[in-house]
Amino acid sequence: VQLQASGGGLVQPGGSLRLSCAVSGLSLDYHALGWFRQAPGNAREGVLCISSSGGSTSYVDSVEGRFTVSRDNAKNTVYLQMNDLKVEDTAIYYCAAREFRRYGGSCPDPPDDALFEYDYWGQGTQVTVSS
Question: N- to C-terminal Cα distance for the chain?
Fold first, then answer.
């Protein structure tokens, strides 16, 4: 199983980025996919999750209305669209697939992002928001 996150970069405040997570070795028809982020000195936190049925769950109040998660099952890829980026969004962003046998394709109920229920992780992509 491999998850390959990409699309990060340097962007000015107010700008946009779209992150991609290309998945191989498991099907998004069955697994929930989460986006997490980790800023320097901070713990990794859940941002958004998309279930196997396409529903999304948010874990960070500050991204609501600015970030959206979507997926393309034909490409086995999940996207994180980030708009109106703020300096505090600067972090390494990771995608991860949640364990299927115990949780099916559902996302964890907030506020618990249930980080340890995710079996497979991508390598992370750096997002830097700075003027």
Answer: 37
Per-residue three-class SS string for the chain: CEEEEECCEEECCCCCEEEEEEEECCCCCCCCEEEEEECCCCCCEEEEEECCCCCEEECCHHHCCCEEEEEECCCCEEEEEECCCCHHHCEEEEEEEECHHHHCCCCCCCCCCCHHHEEEECCCEEEEECC
* Calpha distance 61→76 (Å, rounded): 27
Per-residue pLDDT of the chain (131 residues; tens, 9 = 90+): 999 999 999 999 999 999 999 999 998 889 999 999 999 999 999 999 999 999 999 999 999 999 999 999 899 999 999 999 999 999 999 999 998 888 899 999 988 889 999 999 999 999 999 99
Is the bond preceding 111 in cis, omega lying within 30 degrees of 0? Answer: yes
Q: Tell me how far apart the alpha carbons of residues 42 and 111 are, in angstroms, rounded to a whole number.
A: 17
**Tokens 């500050």 sit on residue:** 62
